[in-house]
Automatic annotation (TrEMBL):
Keyword hit for Oxidoreductase: yes
Similarity remark: Belongs to the 6-phosphogluconate dehydrogenase family.
Record SUPFAM superfamilies: 6-phosphogluconate dehydrogenase C-terminal domain-like (SSF48179), NAD(P)-binding Rossmann-fold domains (SSF51735)
Quaternary structure and interacting proteins, as annotated: Homodimer.
Pathway assignment: Carbohydrate degradation; pentose phosphate pathway; D-ribulose 5-phosphate from D-glucose 6-phosphate (oxidative stage): step 3/3
Name of this chain's protein: 6-phosphogluconate dehydrogenase, decarboxylating
Function (record text): Catalyzes the oxidative decarboxylation of 6-phosphogluconate to ribulose 5-phosphate and CO(2), with concomitant reduction of NADP to NADPH.
Gene symbol of the encoding locus: gndA
Source organism, top-level taxon: Bacteria
Keywords: Gluconate utilization, NADP, Oxidoreductase, Pentose shunt
Organism in which the protein naturally occurs: Ramlibacter alkalitolerans
Length: 469
């Protein structure tokens, strides 16, 4: 076993993310050790780093310099509780535990409460960037016990991605579970971003009859402009790939059933809990759930009627409309994500810096996009912006793109092509800019059947009408 107290940091969980984060730390000059339940993972990791594998958590902890820093990259949920239960008796006041997994923020709140009085500094850190990002530089969103920040800052900022202005994509988010909340919102936006790209692809395929390679060129072109982003880039790459077995496009042989691990659902649940309008994020989750009932959809296709229209419009012009619709829908999804952050900030008093958070997402993470620099500027102009849509820059982009979004949504509806995220983005935009909504009638209905009362435009107070004689 290595000399006791010789390591700067320990990774617990040497899977896809943990091993690569460890290699990233090692590459930045930190002395790293690691532990996994599986002996073969411990051994192969130790041999890669030229160290000896600890045989137990006790040996792992004993090999760390004080204050000890442990980064957990185990699956979210029960495994985190199991590791914490085993670690707790081994740690001392001032030691830091970072949970870098996609943990539900309410679990982080509970664990912080459970550790109160122990002196152990707990950090819930969102990490995004996937396998490649973990190795080359992820975006990291740490929050929790602020005393831990000076201890972990050199480690986390060293391995994080860097934005174009060389700022590390890792900054202290705030107290409590704010780091995991911000990561959850990142993933909610990720769901909406992915779904709107998929709808753009589907419309080009279903209405314009474009082949994957043609669409690959379209997405590659789009990624050189305002839509420049990692997700559009990888879409162009995916659509260019050939399946070696069939010789056709690889995307065409992949089953149209999307899986999910829960972060988009949690973001939607948090939006409902906090009373935030986030329909495009929620519709992206529902798009996955409806994709999952593949056999039911196949049966319903033989029963349920739809339109029999052929697209007769001008193809190049419509492709440009889809591009603009995609940009508009993406902005709406980001607006919803940032509205969710603002509501959580009000609820939990985290004092979230929206501009800083946009800055952290500029590189390393899955939603990295050119747009995030504009979002950062929007919050620099007005840190208390009511909604991203009303920032002068974004209001201008929406002005340019809203007509295209309408035409794409209308065309999708007329031709029976499902485009739920585009549709809900448009409804969000129109609802948010509506000075008057039909909720007056809704209030009357509530008062009619439940005596719930309503307010009047012409005088203050709550009123009830005896609707039934
Ligand atoms: N993959 C990704 O792209 C991203 C993942 N994340 C999050 O990071 C976390 C880790 O994900 P990922 O690396 O993909 O998951 P993996 O399943 O690849 O790795 C998790 C590792 O933790 C090990 N493990 C489980 N329980 C324990 C325990 N009690 N003690 C020690 N090791 C344990 C697992 O071992 P075993 O296999 O034996 O169970 C496995 O080797 C998750 O919360 C995930 O949501 C965040 C961003 C991106
Ligand atoms: O956190 C991530 C990236 O930021 C993961 O890739 C995410 O867990 C993927 O989520 P899902 O499996 O639900 O699509």
């Amino acid at each position: 076993m290595e000399t006791p107290q010789s390591f700067d940091v320990a990774l617990v969980g040497l899977g896809v993310m943990g091993e690569n984060l460890a290699l990233n730390l090692h590459g930045h000059g930190f002395a790293v050790t690691g532990f996994d339940l599986e002996e073969h993972k411990r051994a192969s990791f130790a041999s890669r780093l030229g160290t000896e594998a600890p045989r137990s958590l006790q040996e792992l902890v004993a090999s760390l310099r004080a204050p000890r820093v442990l980064l957990l990259m185990v699956p979210a949920g029960a495994p985190v509780d199991a590791v914490l239960r085993d670690l707790r008796p081994l740690l001392h006041p001032g030691d830091v535990v970072i949970d870098g997994g996609n943990t539900r923020f309410t679990d982080t709140q509970r664990r912080i409460a459970e550790l109160t009085g122990s002196g152990i500094l707990y950090v819930g850190a969102g990490v995004s960037g996937g396998e490649e990002g973990a190795l080359r530089g992820p975006s990291i969103m740490p929050g929790g016990d602020a005393q831990a920040w000076p201890v972990v800052r050199p480690l986390l900022q060293a391995i994080a991605a860097r934005a174009e202005d060389d700022t590390p994509c890792c900054e202290w988010i705030g107290p409590g579970a704010s780091g995991h909340f911000v990561k959850m919102v990142h993933n909610g936006i990720e769901y909406a971003d992915m779904q709107t790209i998929c709808e753009a692809y589907f419309l080009m395929q279903q209405l314009l009859g474009l082949q994957p390679r043609e669409m690959s060129a379209v997405f590659a072109e789009w990624s050189r402009g305002e839509l420049s982003s990692y997700l559009v880039d990888i879409t162009a790459d995916i659509l260019s790939r050939t399946d070696p077995e069939s010789g056709g496009a690889l995307v065409d042989v992949i089953v149209d059933t999307a899986e999910q691990k829960g972060t988009g659902k949690w973001a939607s649940q948090a939006a409902l809990d906090l009373g935030v309008t986030a329909p495009t994020i929620a519709d992206a989750v529902f798009a996955r759930t409806v994709s999952a009932v593949r056999a039911e959809r196949a049966a319903a296709a033989g029963v349920l009627a739809g339109p029999k229209l052929q697209f007769t419009g001008e193809r190049a012009g419509f492709t440009e409309k889809i591009r603009r619709a995609l940009l508009a829908a993406k902005i709406c999804a980001y607006a919803q994500g940032f509205a969710l952050l603002a509501a959580a900030d009000r609820e939990y008093s985290w004092d979230l810096a929206h501009g800083t958070i946009a800055g952290l997402w500029r590189a390393g993470c899955i939603i990295r996009a050119r747009l995030l620099e504009d979002i950062r500027h929007a919050y620099a102009r007005d840190a208390k912006l009511a909604n991203l849509l009303v920032d002068p820059h974004f209001a201008g982009v929406m002005q340019d793109c809203q007509q295209a979004l309408r035409e794409v949504v209308a065309t999708a509806a007329l031709h029976g092509v499902p485009a739920p995220a585009f549709m809900s983005a448009l409804a969000y935009y129109d609802s948010y800019r509506a000075p008057r909504l039909p909720a007056n009638l809704l209030q009357a209905q509530r008062d009619y059947f439940g005596a719930h009362k309503y307010e009047r435009l012409d005088r203050a107070g709550k009123f009830h009408t005896h609707w039934v004689d």
